[in-house]
Amino acid sequence: MGKLHNILAKKIPDWRYNYKKLLDQKGNVVLGDVTIEKALSGMRGIKGLACDTSYVTADEGLHIRGSHILDLVHILPEEVLHLLLTGDIPNKAMLADLQSDLKSRNKVPPYIWDILDNMPKDSHPMTMFNTAILSMQKESQFYKAVDAGLSKTKYWHTTLEDSLNIIAKLPAIAAYIYRLRFNKGKRINSNKDLDWSADFVHMMGFDSDSEMTKLMRLYLMLHCDHEAGNVSAFSAMTVNSALSDPYYALSAGLNGLAGPLHGLANQNCLRFVLSIRDHFKGSPSKADLKQFIWDRLNSGRVIPGYGHAVLRCPDPRFTAFMNFGKEHVTDDEIFDIVNKLFKVVPPVLKEHGKAKNPWPNVDAASGALLYHYGLKEFEFYTVLFSISRSLGITSQMVLNRALGMPLIRPKSLPFDVLNSY
């Protein structure tokens, strides 16, 4: 076991103490009201979960372990994994140890290649990705240890082992799915001298020493976590709370990420931008784009990439992508349209009056940058999101098992009972 395990072993007793103290001293404190409206609106906004890895505020957006996401754009995904798990950004020695540990775990079982090779050639990349993760369940150390009677206080040990084993293998699995599904050629082996993101770019078949790698590092860091109540994280935490191992739980969560109201949103946003380009035969003027947006709204259609269930400000992850584009991308009509949309859409939505949040979310920019650097296969974008979000989901599972969090089991009521209130 690497330094990460030892760091957690020192921190977890204090976390357990604070968890018990909170329950003992403030267990009866009311967090908020649950109305019938909230029960019938997907429990949106109900304060009913605990998550220490990240939180989102309406006016500032995402924070990872207390740090605003825009203050973390310089760090690697491996560093954000360490931050999610421990609360600390690793020093050089800790980072090197974690990277070495992940490298030692990145060999994918040969049967996974056989499974992927024998799936229907037109399978969705997300189906292939989740099938690969679930198919590795027989490798689970958590499952074997719990089956053998492992003490509950040590559940986090094997949850961490499973999580690191999964995270280490995801780039190779995803890269092969990309090459297999989109006819890019034979599987490319890992390069032990590259970091997690650069190796992924290399195995996909892109130049690892390029701006594409810089973008991928940013992309895989920015999408890492978003509290515990989003569809993918909540699904995974619910399954894991039943002591299903991380392979089962992560696969369940990522199946939720495949939905068009969650992880598929970025490809829908890019399709919208491309439709604007095709309609105007290039990048339109702001005046023409404004009329285009009004025409779309007046026809009863939404503007993809604008609005968010929680945020009431521009998504800071969108800001990070836009800053990257402004620094690295020139003479690109797709990115130019994205930039013009940001200037045109919010004022129109405010005047229109029906959008609670007129500001862009992360999906409004991410796809355009991937497209610019040659990753034009839309169906693969959600796999990228999944690789990144796996960092947060597995970290949450490790912490939940460390604290002994119980089975998630909300109460449901039939409609006639609701009508009786």
How would you characterize this protein structure?
This protein has 421 residues and is mostly helical. The protein folds into 2 domains: 77-260 and 382-403, Citrate Synthase, domain 1; 265-372, Cytochrome p450-Terp, domain 2 (Orthogonal Bundle), CATH 1.10.230. It has helices at residues 3-26, 36-39, 77-86, 92-104, 110-117, 125-135, 141-147, 155-181, 196-204, 211-222, 231-241, 246-257, 265-280, 286-298, 316-328, 333-352, 363-372, 381-403, 415-419, and strands at 54-57, 61-64, 67-68. The chain has a 3-stranded antiparallel β-sheet with strand order 1-2-3. A hairpin with a 3-residue loop joins strand 1 and strand 2. The longest helix is centred in the middle third of the chain and has 27 residues, at 155-181. The model has no long low-confidence stretch (mean pLDDT 95). Belongs to the citrate synthase family. It holds the Pfam family Citrate_synt. Keywords: Transferase. GO terms for molecular function: acyltransferase activity, acyl groups converted into alkyl on transfer.
